[in-house]
């Protein structure tokens, strides 16, 4: 007997038929004698609709009221799944974030989980009840509903798994695992059987939105074995794969991975914008004058390139910010024109960041050179580069994004 958390994403609960299908997955685990907590997302498209309604009501709305609105999608699915499970003879009960209680900080709209009362949930499970928890939502210190940022149900699931000391957290979605790159973009993408926490963290933060970044952080910190699988499988098919599981991807410790590849995957993010400041004085304190005010405005700067001026006089600084912060960032810099002292400011929104990820890079040289050569051969210009021990990211024109991802995917031998 195991204790499991099963999380179902939006497409998996898109309508009543899909919810009935989810209920069969839940029932299978209950019938096998496991203790089961379920976490659900809102029906596909529902959260987008609610977000848009808030925007139409007032573009600059109160974040607490935004949370009151957008958290409602998960309330509906947790109730509906409980009704369907009860109808199938399963002892199920829905739980909202505030009822568990899943406590968060006060950052409405993008709250972080602070504490979960796992013991009360465990008690329920031990009484033979299936707890159907509304994902994405929690209770803020002001005693109001909070939400965890888009894709946050993954984080609810992993956090609950950690709090109830679950044996595994199964993330059911519309693909049967984590692939070498987004399978909807590159058809030759391959499913990975195992991915190390650290690699998954890079993949998710560099654009592979199959898991919310914070859910991977949480899984890594608490050692939650996380299994990504499809809810579109036949719920009653024999579970015959490794560990009696169907095809899927286990996110686990690095030492559990036997076949180590140099490059594990390619991720890409279109949520990027580039800003270049020309003719900045090349003297101490300039970088601080530029990036200090951006930090004060809570704008995350990612890639930074600063040239060394030939005459030690003037230089250029280029950096990237999330596309959604582009206008604000431009304004922050413009407002500091006197203080920073620069010639011109230029920006580009039509850029994409493509990243090559793999823990094997730590012990292999030449991976970056291979990437640059591959892109050059296709005539793709690189605007900026950043690297870490286990990843290389390049910023390129968005017109080339698919070509770049496909090229790198083949280049590192990832095609299936
Ligand atoms: P859910 O609604 O179940 O949370 P998401 O849409 O958030 O599902 O995540 C699943 C999607 O993630 C897939 O449909 C796929 O297009 C996308 N995706 C992006 N990168 C990857 C990857 N490397 N492996 C698998 N899926 C990926
Ligand atoms: N429903 C929320 C969203 O669409 C949370 C989630 O699905 O994970 O972002
Ligand atoms: Mg998701």
UniProtKB/TrEMBL annotation:
Q: Which family does it belong to?
A: Belongs to the aspartokinase family.
Q: Which Gene3D superfamilies match?
A: Acetylglutamate kinase-like (3.40.1160.10), VC0802-like (3.30.2130.10)
| Residue numbers binding ATP | 7-10, 173-174, 179, 184, 209-210
Q: Which residues form the ACT domain?
A: 275-359
Is-annotated flag, keyword Ligase? Answer: no
This chain's protein is named Aspartokinase
Cited Pfam families: AA_kinase, ACT_9
Question: Catalyses which reaction?
Answer: L-aspartate + ATP = 4-phospho-L-aspartate + ADP
PROSITE patterns xref list:
ACT (PS51671), ASPARTOKINASE (PS00324)
Q: Which residues bind substrate?
A: 47, 74
A GO biological process held by the record? lysine biosynthetic process via diaminopimelate
Q: In which pathway does it act?
A: Amino-acid biosynthesis; L-methionine biosynthesis via de novo pathway; L-homoserine from L-aspartate: step 1/3; Amino-acid biosynthesis; L-threonine biosynthesis; L-threonine from L-aspartate: step 1/5; Amino-acid biosynthesis; L-lysine biosynthesis via DAP pathway; (S)-tetrahydrodipicolinate from L-aspartate: step 1/4
Q: Write down any Gene Ontology CC term.
A: cytosol
Can the keyword Mitochondrion be found in this entry's annotation? no
Which of the seven top EC classes does this enzyme belong to? Answer: transferase
Q: What is the lineage of its organism?
A: Bacteria, Pseudomonadati, Pseudomonadota, Alphaproteobacteria, Hyphomicrobiales
What is the organism field in this record?
A: Stappia sediminis
GO MF term list: aspartate kinase activity; ATP binding
What keywords sit in the KW lines?
Amino-acid biosynthesis, ATP-binding, Kinase, Lysine biosynthesis, Nucleotide-binding, Transferase
- Entry's EC annotation: 2.7.2.4
């Amino acid at each position: 007997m195991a204790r499991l958390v099963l999380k179902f994403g939006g497409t998996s609960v898109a309508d009543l038929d899909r919810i009935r299908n989810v209920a069969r997955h839940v029932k299978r685990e209950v019938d096998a004698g496991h203790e089961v907590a379920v976490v659900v997302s809102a029906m596909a498209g529902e959260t987008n609709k609610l977000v848009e309604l808030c925007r139409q009501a007032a573009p600059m709305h109160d974040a607490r009221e935004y949370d009151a609105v957008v958290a409602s999608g998960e309330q509906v699915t947790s109730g509906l799944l409980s009704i369907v499970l009860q109808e199938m003879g399963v002892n199920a009960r829905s739980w909202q974030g505030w009822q568990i209680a899943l406590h968060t900080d006060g950052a409405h709209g993008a709250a972080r989980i602070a504490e979960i009362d796992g013991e009360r949930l465990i008690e329920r499970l031990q009484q033979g009840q299936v707890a159907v928890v509304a994902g994405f939502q929690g209770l803020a210190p002001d005693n109001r509903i909070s939400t965890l940022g888009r894709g946050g149900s993954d984080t609810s699931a992993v956090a609950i798994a950690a709090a109830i000391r679950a044996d595994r957290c199964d993330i059911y979605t519309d693909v049967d695992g984590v692939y070498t790159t987004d399978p909807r973009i590159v058809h030759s993408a391959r499913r990975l059987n195992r991915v190390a926490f650290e690699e998954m963290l890079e993949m998710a933060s560099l654009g592979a939105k199959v898991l919310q970044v914070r859910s991977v952080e949480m899984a890594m910190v608490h050692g939650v074995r996380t299994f990504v699988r499809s809810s579109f499988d036949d719920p009653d098919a024999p579970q015959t794969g490794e560990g009696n599981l169907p095809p899927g991807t286990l996110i686990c410790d690095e030492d559990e991975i036997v076949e180590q590849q140099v490059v594990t995957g390619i991720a890409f993010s279109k949520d990027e914008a580039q800003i270049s400041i020309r003719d900045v004085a090349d003297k101490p304190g300039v970088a601080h004058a530029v990036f200090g005010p951006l930090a004060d405005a809570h704008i995350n700067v990612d890639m930074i390139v600063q040239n060394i001026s030939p005459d030690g006089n003037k230089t250029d600084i280029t950096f990237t910010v999330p596309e959604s912060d582009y206008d604000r960032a431009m304004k922050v810099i413009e407002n500091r024109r006197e203080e920073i002292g620069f010639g011109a400011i230029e920006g580009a929104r039509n850029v994409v960041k493509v990243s090559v990820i793999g823990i094997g890079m730590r012990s292999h040289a030449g991976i970056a050179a291979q990437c640059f050569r591959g892109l050059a051969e296709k005539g793709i210009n690189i605007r900026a580069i950043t690297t870490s021990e286990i990843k290389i990211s390049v910023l390129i024109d968005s017109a080339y994004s698919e070509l770049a991802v496909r090229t790198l995917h083949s280049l590192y031998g990832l095609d299936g």
